[in-house]
Amino acid sequence: MSQLCFLCGKPASQTCSDCKLVQYCSESHLKTHRPFDECLPFRVGFVEGKGRVVIAARDIKAGEAVITEHPLVKGPGNKTPPSCLQCLKKWESDTTCTVCGWPVCNEKCQGGELHQLECQILAKISKERLPDFLAHQKAGHSPNYAAIFALRLAIISRSSTDAKDRLDLLMDHKNEIIADPQFEDLWNSPVIKFLTKEFESGFSSDDILRGIGLFCTNAVSMVDCNGRWIFPTFSFLSHSCISNSRFFVHPGDMVVVRAQMDVKAGKEVTIPYTDPFSGNIVRRESIRNLWYFLCCCERCQDVTELGTNVSAVRCRICMASEEEGGRSFLLPTGSEDLHADWSCSQCQNTISNKTITMLVLGLKNKVKEKDGDLPGILDLLTSLEEFLHPNHFLILELKQKWVNMASKSEKNDKDTLENIINFLSDIMKINKKIDPGLTLTLGENLKLLNRAMLNLGKIKMQAGEISQKEFMNIALGAAANIKFAKKCFENSYNE
Q: In whole angstroms, what is the distance from residue 3 CA to residue 21 CA?
């Protein structure tokens, strides 16, 4: 049986001399496997219905690096005000490139490697057809900036065989993008027609549409500006709402993927594309709208979301009789249809998905708006408990917000500290199921929990409620928690 390259799947005649685990077909692919002094423990496989995925080439320990990669392409986002085409900083002057007329910071940025990719092509635009960047600056949005990333992808694909080969392996969801009701306003008019009709860019509509598809499907948002990257290997990673890995971007424009749980050899490596703390009712719709697929992971297929009920809503009909028994809750009647009705398990009361969605989104806005007011958050929390399951993601979000604010305020009274401890216990109990492993959120919450436990322990010891020995046991437990929290932060640039 012929050996195949771990990255592209083409016939490979060479095996890594260090780990002996993977075969490769070129030196550039070997560099992807071994970018520094250690071999990365992954290979690319294929799963029906998903496409290319990342597979553990050996057993991977929690905290271990799986992928490290620099971007192949970098550029502005599609919904951005005018920014420098080189450094992507917000354009706050009227300085433009003397060759093409597009915004740059200065002469250095005008001659930068990134901008030089498209400068000569953009210079073909006549002055009459050049976008009005000053007007766009005032409006806070420049529609034609959506053309830059797609253009750069088209240029790179034509100028570099290696880059084209890497990009050819990526999905683009072109058909779904064309079918989107916003396609004309977001992409066809400001990008495709602009680059193929307004002036002669040298690229076809298909070239540009392919770039748009690659951007929409694979681009990663930058934290510090409205820019995007494409990391070709990173793009193979599939989404799971209970992922086994996480990623962060190194200050040097390098993405690092680390296992947050142990991953057995042959198992798929997954990351979350979106916030795992949102309930199915919000998260699944967002995934379909942004990435054009319906998530069918273990959590999404379970209407209780692994028994957490983080989307469950109280049944109003059963409320009257709840004083004599347990509470009753509404959940979707099925997981296959995102718009399935919701039903009560006790009284069979049925409510439309539209009604539940309107309720949840309305409450979500209230949670988002509530800020800077600790008593106000507690009041809203009491109000939400009238409508939602105690584990509902909005209640947990409010508790987390309250904990973060109370911890920053350094309020050390007994009631506040007990509230912090109780809220964090509720949050961590659920997060352990929906975001398991060595996560940054767990690390941060362990730090807050330990601080509250130690301060409360001191208060209780001074009041004679606990002995010095009991306080020392609390301190030992806190030390063990901090040791675990450090593992969550290890090698992370988000500390």
A: 12
Convert 423-450 to b/e letters by CB count within 10 Å (16 or more is b). bbebbeebbeebbbbbbbbbbbbbbbbb
DSSP per-residue string spanning 178-232: HHSTTHIIIIIIIIIIIIIIIS--S--HHHHHHHHHHHHHH-EE-SSSSEEEE-T
Model pTM score: 0.90
- CA distance linking residue 276 with residue 164, whole number of Å: 33
122, 115 in Cβ contact below 8 A? no
Q: CB–CB of 263/56 below 8 Å?
A: yes
Maximum C-alpha span of the chain: 82
- 395 three-state secondary structure: helix
Distance CA 85, CA 131 (A): 14
> How far, in Å, are 2, 195, 290 from residue 83 at the CA level?
49, 19, 24
Which residues make beta-bridge pairs with 388? 313
Q: What pLDDT is stored for residue 146 in this prediction? A: 97
% of residues, the chain, pLDDT over 70: 97
Work out the pLDDT band at 326, boundaries 50, 70, 90.
low
Nearest alpha-carbon partner for 42 in 25, 27, 24: 24
Given CA atoms 431, 437, 443, 448 in this order, what sign does their dihedral have? positive
Instruction: Please tell me the predicted confidence (pLDDT) of residue 495.
Output: 41
52 has a pLDDT exceeding 60: yes
Q: Inform me whether the pLDDT recorded for 114 exceeds 90.
A: yes
Give dist(CA 349, CA 343) in Å, integer.
6
Mean pLDDT comparison of 55-59, 371-375, 488-492, highest-scoring range: 55-59
Q: For residue 2, is pLDDT > 70?
A: no
Beta strand residue intervals within 70-189, DSSP E: 73-76
Position 348 scores a pLDDT of: 85
Cα 411 to Cα 419: distance, rounded to the nearest angstrom: 11
Between the alpha carbon of residue 322 and those of residues 316, 318, 344, 356, 381, the distances in Å are 10, 6, 13, 21, 20
Q: How many CA atoms lie within 13 A of 67 on its CB side?
A: 29
pLDDT over 90 at 250, yes or no: no
Beta pairing partners, 249: 255
Confidence of residue 324 (pLDDT cuts 50, 70, 90): very low
Q: DSSP labels for 420-452?
A: HHHHHHHHHHHHHHHS-SS-HHHHHHHHHHHHH
Contact predicate 254/69, CB 8 Å: yes
Residue labelled with tokens 């806070």: 140
Per DSSP, 363 falls in state H
